[in-house]
Specification:
It is built from 5 helices and 13 strands. The two termini are about 20 Å apart.
Length: about 220
């Protein structure tokens, strides 16, 4: 279900929405905004005039289909730039508290928002396609590893900022399959899951071999 916001409680900051009270621009750059988690930055089919640079935090891009279903097409991490578009092909929602900055210098020379969403969808399709749930999950864990923030309690652990239902949605599997696959990886000594929101990568070479292997049958 897509987030709903009361427009009377929000202010538009150069192409993205953010609540008024929690946002305090750092002194160094007045354009930078701190946006809480679970906030819609822009809606699908909405005009987004400026690019958005993600300085910190995580954002999901969600496509809503005519039958009411939704599909997560990609995630944006620190260093990502969300391209502007006359009509965005997805809704952008903050997963965590984010530090964002509008980028007026990113114009027509850069890929448009539509192209950006299409490329993300094609990459996802190529990676998940006919692959099994095991291969898809291994690929996903390797993809997000460099983006996850370190856990402040366990030095060898990372914080998983993406909910498991979002992981399942993104990889095209059921929540039960996603949880079962993670549990299998843990039992096999590939990863550890100290808590539901933390992960330790134990055997990255084996994860790479799994992600690179050929599928013998998809599981969903």
């Amino acid at each position: 279900m897509l987030l709903t916001l009361d427009d009377s409680q929000h202010t538009n900051y150069s192409g993205f929405l953010a609540t008024k009270s929690p946002i305090r621009p750092p002194a160094r750059d007045p354009r930078v905004r701190l946006v809480p988690g679970n906030v819609v930055l822009f809606w699908q089919d909405e005009h987004q005039p400026h690019a958005i640079e993600v300085i910190d935090g995580a954002i999901r891009a969600v496509r809503l289909w005519s039958d009411g279903t939704r599909q997560i097409v990609t995630f944006f991490w620190p260093g990502s730039i969300i391209a502007p578009a006359a009509l965005q092909r997805y809704t952008a929602e903050t997963l965590t508290r984010c530090t964002l900055r509008p980028r007026e210098d990113v114009v027509a020379d850069e890929p448009g928002g539509t192209d950006q969403a299409l490329l993300a969808s094609l990459r996802l399709l190529a990676a998940t396609g006919k692959n099994s749930a095991t291969i898809r999950m291994a690929w996903f864990l390797l993809q997000i590893r460099e983006h996850l923030p370190r856990d402040t309690v366990r030095s060898n652990a990372f914080r998983v900022v993406i909910p498991r239902n979002d992981i399942a949605d993104y990889l095209g599997m059921t929540l039960e399959t996603a949880c079962r696959t993670l549990a299998t990886f843990r039992a096999q000594g590939l990863i550890d899951l100290p808590t539901r929101k933390t992960i330790c990568y134990i055997d990255i070479p084996r994860l790479i071999r799994i992600a690179s292997s050929q599928s013998e049958g998809a599981t969903a």
